[in-house]
Specification:
mainly alpha, two-stranded antiparallel sheet, 58% helix, 4 strands, 2 domains, binds zinc ion
Amino acid sequence: MIRTALPVKKALKPKRCRHCGNSFAPISSMSKACSVPCALALNDAAKKKSAAKALKVERKSMKERAIKLKTRREWIAEAQVAVNKVARLRDQLAGYGCISCEGRPKARYGGGMDAGHYRSVGSAPHMRYYLTQICGQCKQCNRDYGGMSVEFRRGLIERIGVNRVEEIEAMQGAAKWDIDYLKRLKKVMQKKARRLEKRIAEKAEVNQLLEEVA
Ligand SMILES: [Zn+2]
Ligand SMILES: [Zn+2]
């Protein structure tokens, strides 16, 4: 005699409908709703929930992108500070005054000079770190930029020659720097600035000795 092991079909315990809360006899262990309308209502609620979740994820990634963007902007600005400092110190070591008026404001409260861009960062962003076109410029001239570009050009021609100036005027490119590049640029420029400061201090010392001798 063969005994077939038939699974014993257990009657499922009544459940509570997840939508309306009424007790019902489930068809399967997966049943959640007592009726079609309740099942539809549940389905609807689930859809709304997942849409809300998707929106939350989207908002989070937008926020992350914004943070990333802000960080890059900050790195761009920090690298600019370092590059500008090198330009100012380079001109100070060379004994230059303001590129456009030749004025020499007294270096008080962290220096009377700005670093002026010949081609402005606004109109030529790819030139924002190009040292040759960044010069020590008095704050007055730098802030009255539009009125001083002719004088800036004349000053720059005196220093580097008309050919280099025309080269700079023709330079094309894209302002695309990743954060790693900006970090490296800042570091290299800070090192360069420290070397220039050392040489400026040495020069001042020599000048003082010469004055004492004279
Ligand atoms: Zn129900
Ligand atoms: Zn000036």
